[in-house]
Specification:
6-stranded mixed β-sheet, 5-stranded mixed β-sheet, 2 domains, Immunoglobulin-like, repeat, oxidoreductase, alpha+beta, signal
Length: 347
């Protein structure tokens, strides 16, 4: 069974490489990638990644016209601490896992460039927020090459992005995922009520680069991260500890909005905040999908939402997936609510 599966993976990898080399060429890269692909099944870093820890490259995002945004991202190999002292040599966008938050406006055209800094294997970008031709716009960018693609973002909401290179599961599980917010033209009906906004992303970690575990196992960790919506907000990686040790902070009486996205790759999220009820929920972040009074919001793998709730009393509110086996594996973030709206514990 196992051998069959490995053969399948090798064929899939080879096929994707063959498809890719029509676009950007490079016989050497093709050979390297094929070698690298053969390692997908054994929990080890690819030979070319072993001594690599590429410094995170900041996201480049620039508005070049009223309805045009230029975005440049990197595919790179960077060490991420996923649990205390446990380093994962992740396949990343810009050296973060999840990748950096992207925010554009409904109706924007995205002029997107992916710079592949990975010396060994191709990577690509699949934005769930756009209409595109997957076979032309989400194509592989070969090692040390760049690819530029243009597409409109006409649907408002909270969307996933991820690397779409085969085997897609390996690229997502190794860290190549993130969130893009397309801000609705006319906003949300509750915009004026909201006092604080945060971003949260849920993702899973498995045994290192182990296709068998990715496909047949259960996650070792399920984690949350937060990303900066505005200057001064934090960017954290998906790990088991940061959002417990340094909580998100709100003030008693605040209406809090969270842009939440479950990037998986495999599990659903039963998103819940202990001690409150979601007054307003916009499924996938679309203002038309307005629900009221939910206790838990179901997020499929790749699903997003905007959730809003009021914190009426001071204290620590646990933000969890109510699949408590996953909460136990890390998926708990703390929202600390104080009288002042500042963290009073000395953080
Ligand atoms: Cu990739």
């Amino acid at each position: 069974m196992k051998r069959k599966f490995y053969t399948f993976v090798s064929i899939a990898v080879a096929a994707s490489l063959l498809a890719a080399c029509g676009n950007t060429g490079g016989k050497e890269a093709e050979k390297e990638s094929a070698k690298a692909g053969a390692h997908h099944t054994n929990s080890e870093a690819l030979a070319a990644h072993k001594d690599l820890n590429q410094k995170p490259v900041p996201l480049k995002m620039e508005r070049i016209g009223p309805h045009d945004v230029k975005i440049e991202m990197t595919a790179q190999i960077t060490d991420i601490e996923i649990d205390k002292g446990k380093i994962y040599k992740a396949w990343t966008f810009n050296g973060q896992v999840p990748g950096p938050l992207i925010v554009v406006n409904e109706g924007d055209t995205i002029h997107f460039t992916l710079k592949n800094m990975d010396p060994a294997i191709p990577h690509s970008m699949d934005f769930h927020a756009v209409h595109a031709s997957p076979s032309k716009d989400f194509v592989d960018v070969m090692p040390n090459k760049s690819g530029t693609f243009t597409y409109p973002a006409n649907n408002p909401g909270v969307f996933m992005y991820h690397c779409g290179t085969k085997p897609v599961l390996a690229h997502i599980a190794n860290g190549m995922h993130g969130m893009i917010i397309v801000k609705p033209k006319n906003g949300y009906p509750t915009d004026n009520e909201v006092d604080r906004e945060f971003v949260l992303i849920q993702n899973e970690w498995y045994k290192y680069n182990d296709m068998d575990d990715f496909q047949n196992g259960v996650p070792s960790y399920v984690v949350f991260s937060t990303k900066a919506l505005k200057t001064g907000d934090r960017n954290t990686n998906g790990d088991t500890f940061t959002l417990k040790e340094e909580p998100l902070v709100a003030k008693v009486g605040d209406k809090v909005r969270i842009y939440i996205e479950n990037v998986g790759p495999n599990e659903v999220s039963s998103f819940h905040v202990v001690g409150t009820v979601f007054d307003d929920v916009y499924i996938d972040g679309n203002p038309n999908n307005h629900l009221k009074g939910l206790q838990t919001v179901m997020l499929p793998a790749s699903g997003g939402a905007v959730v809003e709730f009021t914190v009426t009393r001071p204290g620590n509110y646990s933000i969890v997936t109510h699949q408590f086996n996953h909460a136990q594996k890390g998926a708990v973030a703390i929202l600390k609510v104080t009288e002042t709206g500042e963290d009073d514990s000395g953080h």
